[in-house]
Structure formats: structure tokens, C-alpha cells
Amino acid sequence: MPRLVGFGAGVLLFLPAASLAFAxxxxxxxxxxxxxxxxxxxxxxxxxxxxxxxxxxxxxxxxLTDQLATANDRLAVIGVGLQVVSVAALPAGLSEVASKxxxxxxxxxxxxxxxxxxxxxxxxxxLDGHSVLKGVTWRKAGRPWVIVxxxxxxxxxxxxxxxxxGLPHSRAYRSLMNKTPxxxxxxxxxxxxxxQPVMRRTLGQLLAQGWLGRVPARPx
Length: 220
Description:
Residues 1-5, 8-21 and 54-58 have low confidence and may be disordered. This protein is α/β, with parallel strands linked by helices. The protein is globular, with a radius of gyration of 17 Å. The chain has helices at residues 56-75, 100-105, 156-164, 196-209, and strands at residues 3-5, 19-20, 39-47, 51-52, 80-89, 96-97, 116-121, 123-125, 132-133, 135-140, 143-149, 182-184.
């Protein structure tokens, strides 16, 4: 059955803290760009610690894998894939991001040439101070990075990459960029034919600026 989907505010359930489960994955643990992907983009992954039950580290790896695999599936239409090339921990103070300053601090001093920062936090709050978000594309001096909450469903990273590649929100029914709640199978959500030329053009610009970069090809 179709389910109600949307990219806007949601409800965050708080569970009693048990123990600090915080095992950083290694890049090799995460999906690589699919074979023969024309443009494999390098990601720096920054993960904020969170207090969760002891099995949360395994859940985090599964969640990260789903986010990357889904994004790679949707971006394949423009010949793009994503691959994590480094993983680092964020300070505990950035587990919850609820202000412009916190969004800036999440990655601003960690941005590397030719890499897109993907920041994972426990809680992401809209700048109105009330709404809980699943993800946001943030920019400083024009340079983008992506912040995603651990509560995000598996299409959120792909949606935010759409913003990185120049797309606004959309009203097209099947567009991944349409954040209006509606009854549709998630597998039917795509980057539309109208959106793809914008994504390709913006990709070229970001590569030329050095704000995105390709993963070096592996030897055969």
C-alpha cells in the first residue's frame, strides 16, 4: 500500500538513555559508487554522538547504508554516485542542531577541497525553534553541505543532494523534491526529466569551483 511521505517537520520520540553507543563506521563499511558511475563524488562523513541503547551502533550502520544506497540509486539518472572517503566524530555539543550558529559549526571549519560534507546529528530543529526536521542543505559563502537527522527516512539524503545540485522544492507529484505529504510509493519518487538538466549544470559548476570532487579511480 502507498504510504504517506513528506520531507517536512516530524515527531521525534525520546527513549530513556541507556548507554553511549558510538562506534564510527569505516568508509569500507559503507556502499561505494556503483561500477562504471561516470561521476563518483567524494563525501566526508561527520557523525555526532548520541545516547541510545547498546545496539544503536549496528542500527546506525544500517541507516547510513540505506541513505547512501538510496541516494546512489536516485542519482544514477544523471550519472552520479556518492562515496564516503573519510569518517570523523563531531563534538557532543553538536548532537542537536537548533540554530544558525550550530549549523555553521557543524562543518564550516571541516570543509575540505573537493569533498561534500555529510553531517549526521541526533536532532535537527528548524530555525523557528519548534519544528523537527529530517534534513537541511546549509550554505556558507555559497558552499553547500548537508545535515541529516538520524530520524530521517531513507530518501532524505537524496532529497538534500537535489538541493546541493541546484533544485528547489517542487510540486511535481513524482518528484523527490516535492515535500508535500501525499500517498505514493517511495520507490516511485525520482528526479524528474525537467530537474535533471539543472542538476547536471550545477554539478559542473560545483566541480569547477572545487566544492565537489571525484573519488580517484581504483586500479583494476
